[in-house]
Amino acid sequence: MKVVEIQKLTKAFSLGFGKTPLKALDGLSFSLEKGQVLGVVGPNGSGKTTLFKCILGFIKATSGTIHLFENRLSEMELKSKIGFLQEKVNYYSELTPVELLKFYGSFYSIPSQMLKEKINELLKLVDLDAFRNIKVRNFSKGMLQRVGIASSLISDSEFLIFDEPASGLDLFGIAQIKNIMKKLSQQGKTLMISSHVLSHIQDICDEFVVLYKGRLIKAGNWNELMENRECFQIELKINSISEGEKAAALLTRSGYQVEHASWARQDLEKIFMTIIGEHQ
To answer: Strands 22-33, 37-41: parallel, antiparallel or unpaired by DSSP?
Structure first.
């Protein structure tokens, strides 16, 4: 099933009498299948947030079409199927995560016992169970983002839109947000995630679209984008330098050029997370 299908979507904003309207979106066409994770990438001002607002119905497109869940759902059903996390979340500072989630749950007429169970489940998912009764005015930005993710899931949304979820977070906060999004993907949720920092989403998304000045300039499979078809690599697992030297010599004698041989480098982000984890 296509969760999102967009055809020739354009959004122009008026700049005043006699001035040419500004096209924030210019003829976008793409689709997203159920269970896929789509990365919407591009520099600031490329139209990512405007796209999301059009999909959510916050603003009306100038032209083009947006079909959600193949137009099978009523407007009220759609509201419970879609969750949204905006870049900057703001909550009443004197409320706790439990109180906030109860408030959002009340919009959907969820029975009290079911809502209680759902809140417990979500707080564990976003790793905030230990902070459930602490007022959010004491929370870091990363913690507020996680509260936002929990609130977007209170109605058991199937399609989630995250607008720059890792913006302004440190490495630890980014890793936590990534981990939550991976869990949601494993649960079969359909995700659309925006970022202007590719490293924030490159290991989460299946597909991508690149926006620039409101235009879709490239789209496709993330793995295919990352592949370098001009350079084929083979990884060998060895246990000592002497084994590595033998393997390099064997390849050289066979007519292959060994450009580099050394101990494998580790991912800096993973090293940082391991160091922090050892002291928690």
So the answer is: unpaired
Closest C-alpha to 8, from 162, 216, 179, 280? 216
Average pLDDT, the chain: 87
CATH annotation of 2-226:
3.40.50.300
Which residues are within 8 A (CB) of 158 and not within 5 positions of it... i.e. 6 or more apart?
3, 34, 81, 82, 189, 190
DSSP string, 112-156: HHHHHHHHHHHHHHTT-GGGTTS-GGG--HHHHHHHHHHHHTTT-
DSSP class of 33: E
45 Ramachandran zone, left/alpha/beta (phi>0; psi -120 to 50)? left
Kindly list the averaged pLDDT for each block of 10 residues, start to end, along the chain of length 280.
95 83 92 94 90 94 95 85 86 92 88 92 92 93 90 90 85 84 91 84 86 91 73 79 85 85 70 65
3-state DSSP percent of the chain in helix, strand and coil, to 5: 40, 20, 40
Place of tokens 């869990």: 183
Residue pair 139/148 in contact (Cβ under 8 Å)? The answer is no
Sequence spans of domains, the chain = 2-226, 241-277
pTM for the predicted model, two decimal places:
0.80
Interval 41-89: pLDDT, tens: 888 889 999 999 999 999 999 999 999 999 888 888 888 899 998 888 8
Query: What count of Cα atoms within 13 Å lies in the side-chain half-sphere of residue 127?
Result: 13
